[in-house]
Specification:
A two-stranded antiparallel ribbon has the order 1-2. Helix content is about 50%, strand content about 20%. The protein is globular and about 35 Å long. With about 80 residues, the protein is α+β, with helices and mostly antiparallel strands. A hairpin with a 6-residue loop joins strand 1 and strand 2.
């Protein structure tokens, strides 16, 4: 499993609740749930899929792409 250095917290379908994403497979699963698919979503999804297929992509690059996609889709949970 390719883990992130720290989790990215995203919104859930329940107001006020967040979900911590801390590895590539989970990031891909979350991306599939979102309705907004902008350019950052596509980049993050492509990186996740490539990594899951065995490409040697640094998990921190995927983490940054996932965080950017979460911001773009308004899914990033605000930090305290």
């Amino acid at each position: 499993m390719r883990c992130f250095s720290s989790p990215i917290y995203v919104r859930t379908n329940r107001p006020g609740l967040r979900h911590g994403v801390n590895h590539v497979k989970e990031a891909a699963e979350q991306l599939r749930k979102w309705s907004k698919h902008g350019p950052r979503w596509h980049k993050a999804m492509n990186l996740c899929q490539s990594a899951l297929e065995g490409d040697p992509i640094d998990s921190q690059i995927i983490r940054k792409a996932f965080e950017a996609a979460a911001k773009e889709a308004d899914m990033l949970f605000p930090s305290d």
